[in-house]
Amino acid sequence: MKIELRRGWGRGRWIWALVGFVLALAGCSAWPGQAPWASSPVPPPSPSPTPRPTATATHPPATPTPAACDRAAPGLPLDVTIPDDTVLEPGAPFTKVWRVRNVGTCTWTREYALVWVSGPQLAAATRVPLPYEVPPQATIDLEVPMQAPAEGGLYHSNWMLSNAQGHVFGLGPAADQPLWVRLWVPEATPEVRTPTAPTATPSPTPSPSPTATPTAPPAVHETRAILPAATVDLDALSPEGVPDLAYRRDDDGAAFLEPLNQARLGVFGPTAPDEPACRQTPQAQAALPLSGLPPGMYLCFTTDAGRVGRLRFVALDPESGELTVEVLTWPLPEEAP
Questions:
Q1: How confident is the model at residue 50 (pLDDT cuts 50, 70, 90)?
Q2: Which residue has better confidence, 229 or 301?
Q3: Quick count: other Cβ atoms within 10 Å of Cβ 7?
Q4: C-alpha neighbours within 13 Å on the C-beta side of residue 326
Q5: Which range is least confidently modeled, 40-54, 155-169, 293-307?
Q6: DSSP state of 157
């Protein structure tokens, strides 16, 4: 009996001791003047500044630039008449017609015009107004009456469009490429008169006159066919001579003539030049493509020995690559008889 009461009292004493210990700990962590079991007050959050809206750069709608407003593109075809390198007789009148399309954002009004900008004017007006309005994506044929020059040669005339404010524009992404007409005019052939038959009246015996010095004959005048990878000595057309010209074709089949050993080559035109004309023709040591040369075109050359001559492009066989040319080389002045 005594042992059981002592055990029950001991258990309760330990329980109350534990409760007191817990309350003591709570009292140590409490704020002054605050109950140990009361929770610590949480201070209210300080107000954060209201964020300002981020400034976004705003631009007014872009107005079309002149290049976007006024732009032209080639029609189909661009050259309705007088394609490049057309041969016209001296003084012949003609009408050049270009077909162009309005690919800009502005309508071409009647205040727009086709204007001459450089090169020979070819007896044309400097400004040709448009005959009607041309809205965007529409096509117009621009006609200009012209006249071939009286003297022979190659003529290249450049033209562009002009808007109502006088700003010029043309073809290409930057609207800065001109329209042009390029033509050849052959040299005028001198008139040949048939001499009249002499009368029966005896003529007096002419007094002796000094004999005129004969013109030196060409050193070389020959037409021959050559194959790709061949070289030619233009001084004598001899295989033993120093080559002046090489005929080559690239992997795509394009043919060209390449001067060798300091020889020079240049394009003259569709008429046969004489020696002084070839001496004045610009020549270079660069390779010359044959793709843009029509048959019958004349070239001028200077050999490694200093002789001047002309070469006529006769024909080019696209299958075999055989090139036919006519060569004429004049002698040096000291070689004249």
A1: very low
A2: 301
A3: 9
A4: 10
A5: 40-54
A6: E
Largest Cα span, the chain: 195
Per-residue burial over 263-301, b = 16 or more CB atoms within 10 Å of its CB, e = otherwise: bbbbbbbbbebebebbeebebeeeebebeebeeebbbbb
Q: Where are the beta strands (DSSP E) in the chain?
A: 72-79, 86-87, 93-102, 113-118, 127-129, 139-147, 153-162, 168-169, 179-185, 220-226, 231-232, 245-249, 255-259, 264-269, 288-289, 298-302, 308-316, 323-329
Count other C-beta atoms under 10 Å from residue 158's C-beta. 16
Residue type, 124: A
- For the question of whether the overall pTM of this predicted structure is more than 0.70, the answer is no
Q: What is the distance between the alpha carbons of residues 42 and 209, in angstroms, rounded to a whole number? A: 138
What is d(CA 159, CA 180) in angstroms, rounded to the nearest whole number? 6
Name which residue leads in pLDDT, 321 or 55.
321
- Domain boundary assignment for the chain: 66-185, 220-335
Cross-strand bridge partners of residue 329: 220, 309
Q: Cα(first)–Cα(last) distance of the chain, in Å?
A: 168
Q: How many CB atoms lie within 10 A of CB 302?
A: 23
Q: What is the pLDDT of residues 309-332, one digit of tens each?
A: 998 888 888 777 888 888 889 888
- The strand pair at 86-87 and 179-185 is best described as parallel
The structure tokens 């059981």 sit at: 4
Q: Using an 8 Å Cβ cutoff, are 280 and 268 in contact?
A: no
Q: Of 82-91, 107-116, 166-175, give the range with the top mean pLDDT.
A: 107-116
Burial letters for 17-44: b for 16+ Cβ neighbours within 10 Å, e otherwise?
Answer: eeeeeeeeeeeeeeeeeeeeeeeeeeee
Q: How far apart are CA 238 and CA 62, in angstroms?
A: 70
Third-level CATH fold of 66-185: Immunoglobulin-like (2.60.40)
